[in-house]
Hints:
By secondary structure, the protein is an alpha+beta fold. It has helices spanning 36-40, 50-54, 119-124, 129-136, 143-164, 247-251; strands at 12-19, 26-31, 62-66, 72-75, 93-97, 172-175, 183-192, 199-205, 215-216, 219-220, 229-232, 237-239. A five-stranded mixed beta sheet has the order 2-1-5-3-4. It has a five-stranded antiparallel beta sheet with strand order 11-8-7-6-12.
Amino acid sequence: MGDQYQVITAPLVNVRITSSLNSFMAEKRFDRGLTIGDFKASYFSHTGRLELITGASCGSMSLEVFDENDKLVCALNDDSALLGSFNVEENYRIHVTDNSKKMGEFEDLSKVEKYELSEEEYSKRNDSVRSFLLKNKLGKYNAEEQQKLQEEKEALEKVEKEKAETITVGSRCEVRVQGEAVRRGEVMYVGKVHFKSGLWVGVKYDEPLGKNDGSIGGKRYFECPMKYGGFARPAFCEVGDFPEINYEDDEM
């Protein structure tokens, strides 16, 4: 009987933990010198024990050990015995069963009561993010800053509109985007698009250096072969007498 309660293997063991209460599996390392009762419990600082890992209750859980082939090895059925006195090897699985609770009980967030504040109550709080921003006149609560941002936005939109008016469909163009190769082609579209705000220029490139065939998300803006079409901001598009680039000569 005395041999049953001795640690007969390495002091620590890495095991996988599953349970009847949830679908996930945890991998933890435990001291073989723990009694099975302590192994189950979550009191004091035992934050890694089975109660907290699985949600099962210490008094109603039962433990079974399975090997790497999922064959039952033994049951940990003596709370006073040491974990190391049982045949629990590296990477074995310990399954926790608690018939006093239901499967998924701790995974169904729809049953968790949500704490909500009305708009009026939230506005009265002095410890909220909104209160902090108002007090320090930050973000959208800084009227001067918001006015400045609005003016900058309108100025950019004006510049973009003026530039777009100089680009006409059918013109030869050169597209220069920082970090990308220079591309030449023909302007096929100028205007607004459904996938981004602002004005855009649709280009049929001379080479398959684009990303589409003139359509995006099922909406067609112009016709061209696949990979020959692309869209660029007016600021990156210059129209002029740009002949086609002979890439074969460049490679030679």
